[in-house]
Amino acid sequence: MFDALCLDVRHSLRGLWRTLAFSLIVIITLAIALGATLAVGSLYSAFVLRPLPVRSPEQLVAFSAIEPQANVTGYFYDETFNLYRNAQQSFAQMSMYSGAGLYRVEARSGVFDAVSEAVSPSYFDLVGARPSAGRFFNEEDAATGAVVVLSESFRRRIFGEDGGVGEAVKLNAVPATVIGIAAGGFNGLGADGPTDIIVPLTVTRAAGGDLSAPLRSLNIVGRLKRGRSIDAARAELLARWPSIQAATLPATLPDAARNALLAQRIDVESIASGFSGLRARYGRTLAILLGVMVLLLAVACANVAGLTLARSLARQHEVAVRLALGASARRVFWQLLLDSLLLAGAAFAGAVPLAWGILRVVRASLAMGSSTFRP
User: Fold this and answer.
1) What proportion of the chain, given as a percentage, has pLDDT over 70?
2) Number of folded domains in the chain?
């Protein structure tokens, strides 16, 4: 049977070579349409569909706040967060969170740019992170703000294979000590690129130069309790948050800032796929573009089907001769099908490197426009 298959393949290749123009048109048409569809589909999957590599990502949610009048992102203050965390019934774990911040890290080996996450100590248990060396910071460490946790990849980048825990560094000129290394594979909650360093919120305050300012974060992240839904968590938030916030906002806030915070719109949304500025900016465009690419692929397939039908009509005499010489209808059908499979295989072989090239170009363009995106 293998010998017969080899014979059929050789015969199909000879036939396709004799009609080289037809073969090239079919291969190029399918390769372009399929390659473009694969590239856009890969981008859409990476930005929109791919879940975070953490334990039970579907249980992760984030609080977001928008100030309606200015249409800008609001903040969450630590006293409000702590009181709400103790009062709520929807979340097993909660943490304050500000991600995708950029720090200039000064180490003994040089100066490096680092993408950061500023969090509460409960963050590590919430996401299921584990240290490969040292430990994560606790409430006492967070109060001092002079500590930092590095990712495994960033540790290797600034210290090589040796060093890490106990090293003294500066974060935007603020002294800190490396107390732990997150195990490889943990990239934080950002979907646009891996997190390099994780710091307490007090480091963010110190880097801003105002040690008396109240602690605040851009988001609150939480892990839903088993059996609790996002809708139930949202309903509880809307019921409890206004009174808790009004009672806990810092007394030092100006009246205008206080009124803006009390008027801000709070929501709860899933972050199973992580935080992504690129998703917010390009997600809908990619969805539309993916639909266009699928339509383009369907049109290309229809055109190729028309060309193949025309070629089949032109081969009626050849098919009649084969049948007259004793070939079975099944064998003739198999030979025609093999021609199509070879053309499709050649088109796919051309589509893969084309899609890879498109992805490289798009990723390079996105990396130039986003400081946290890394191809």
Assistant:
1) 86
2) 2
Residues in contact with 186: Cβ distance below 8 Å, sequence separation at least 6, in sequence order: 53, 54, 127, 129, 130, 151
Q: Which residues pair with 174 in a beta bridge?
A: 171
The residue length of the chain stands at: 375
Residues 73 and 151 in one domain: yes
Q: Are strands 174-182 and 147-151 parallel, antiparallel or unpaired?
A: parallel
Cα gap 76→264, rounded to integer Å:
11
Strands (E) in 229-368, as ranges, are 265-270
Q: Which two tokens stand for residue 74?
A: 């609001």
Taking Cα atoms as reference points, which of 282, 254, 279 lies closest to residue 269?
279
Q: What is the largest CA-CA distance in the chain?
A: 97
Residue 96 and residue 126 in contact, taking contact as beta carbons nearer than 8 Å: no
Burial class (CB in 10 A: 0-12, 13-18, 19+), 59: buried
Name the amino acid, one letter, at 163.
G
324-351 pLDDT, tens digit per residue, is 666 666 666 666 677 778 888 889 999 9
Can you tell me which residue has the tokens 């291969």? 27
**Do 70 and 45 fall within a single domain?**
no
Q: Are 6 and 255 in contact (CB under 8 A)?
A: no
Instruction: State how far Cα 174 lies from the chain centre.
Output: 31
Q: d(Cα 290, Cα 80) in Å, to the nearest integer?
A: 42
- Residue 375 resides in a domain: no
pLDDT tens figures, 131-154? 999 999 999 988 887 899 999 999
Residue the block writes with tokens 């240290």: 131
Let me know: does 144 contact 199? Beta carbons within 8 Å.
no
Give the number of other Cβ atoms within 10 Å of residue 314's Cβ: 11
Phi, psi of 269 (to 5 degrees): -140, 155
Q: Which domain holds residue 255?
A: 57-272
Asked, for residue 374, whether it belongs to a domain, the answer is: no
Highest-confidence range of 40-49, 62-71, 77-86, 317-326, by mean pLDDT? 77-86
For residue 372, what pLDDT is reported?
47
- Binned at pLDDT 50, 70 and 90, residue 7 comes out as low
Rounded to whole angstroms, the Cα distance separating 291 from 340 reads: 26
Residue 342: Cβ within 10 Å count: 17
Report yes or no on whether pTM surpasses 0.90: no
